[in-house]
């Protein structure tokens, strides 16, 4: 077996594990992502140690030796501690078998070989020995180092077995292909695995929504998120994960007039956003911004294809998607807002950029105005360079207007200068409908530029118009 250079195993934790393994008479190995990332030259502080014996007992011994607190997870047979900036997890080598209706395995004690067979992919099944007799030796029974060099995602066993046993591995295959791909090397899932996914895609239905959402978030957080959704579509997984995206696919033609493929467009917008922002839920907004188009699609002989109101329909769909995937409510509101408003800045570009329109945009977007502008700018995917240049030029005009209006009127975090208690005190009235009417009148006057966003002008406006509602000062 080949020996790995010292730089991969120079961290003190590895020598400590080696000493304890010798004292206990057991074999220990570092396995999985740490080994893979060493060969890829990617820094990592996430270390998995597999022990031929009790991982929990071994972790306790390491914790005692290092003076570190050990967290135990008895249900999973694992333990974890932190040491000099590394997160080190310990597990006993095991063999697994599965029931078809569940992804929870039946677990038995096993050897390193058993443990490597249960791993998801060959590139994650490689191990470094931490044993004195062959410290640093690479244990790679499935050719993971070869697959890593070739940019291949492949299962150690027959893919039908691997994916049927634990269907989450299908999403992990997509995620690793996406995560590991760089400008210099693109990773691909081998054809036999893709074929297996198409056959077994329905097995995703046994997964919890939370596990699916976790994988989707990791895909979206990667450097090439659009690649993940193309792969899920190609593998037949998208229908079980985000069917709303699948509905965007395809181009319909009537009288020789077609519309763009909205699935491809959405992924292009996602790519554009990912190039300028790493905000996870801004990327979600980019992915979902056009999901209302299939329901709003109409053909008009004079206008061609239209998608009027798709932003409103899409905004209504967002809560259902987030609820299904158990994604956070606060983030849902953020994504829903961006989906609902994503056409507003474009409408300003097409029309005269008035102060009133800008005030209303600032009022509706609030602190999310900058993210909204990023999304709208990313939504420009036309191949017509002249058109793109014109729109981007107009966008700069909108940006300048936003800055000017915000500096002058402070609308972004609008708070009505007139509150209900003040109205009741001035007119000697109890809580009633008229109070809401007055506050709405003041707000609209400020947004229209009739009065400034300050108490003095708002108070004078209220006193001028309150008699129209039958209110008189006391």
Structure, explained:
With 474 residues, this protein is α+β, with helices and mostly antiparallel strands. Among the domains are: 6-150, Beta Polymerase, domain 2; 151-241, Hydrophobic Seed Protein (Orthogonal Bundle); 420-469, no CATH class. It has helices spanning 12-24, 33-40, 55-66, 112-117, 144-150, 159-165, 168-180, 191-200, 209-220, 225-234, 238-241, 243-246, 262-276, 280-288, 293-296, 310-324, 329-341, 344-350, 355-365, 369-378, 385-409, 420-427, 433-447, 455-465, and strands spanning 28-31, 46-51, 71-73, 78-83, 86-92, 94-97, 106-109, 127-129, 138-139, 152-153, 188-189, 253-254, 257-258, 298-300, 304-306. The chain has a 7-stranded mixed beta sheet with strand order 3-4-5-2-1-8-9. The protein is elongated, with a radius of gyration of 29 Å. The mean pLDDT is 90.
Task: Sum up the structure in keywords.
single chain; 474 residues; alpha+beta; Beta Polymerase, domain 2; Hydrophobic Seed Protein; seven-stranded mixed β-sheet; two-stranded antiparallel ribbon
Structural class: alpha+beta
CATH topology of one domain: Beta Polymerase, domain 2
CATH class of one domain: Alpha Beta
What is the 3D shape? elongated
As a percent range, the share of strand residues is 5-15%
Distance between the termini: 95 Å
Mean pLDDT comes to 90
The total of beta strands comes to 15
Count every helix, treating DSSP H or I runs of 4 or more residues as helices: 24
Q: Over the alpha carbons, how many angstroms does the gyration radius reach? A: 29 Å
**Major sheet description:** 7 strands, mixed
Write the CATH architecture name of one domain: 2-Layer Sandwich
Strand order of the largest sheet: 3-4-5-2-1-8-9
Helix content percent band = 40-55%
Low-confidence stretches: none
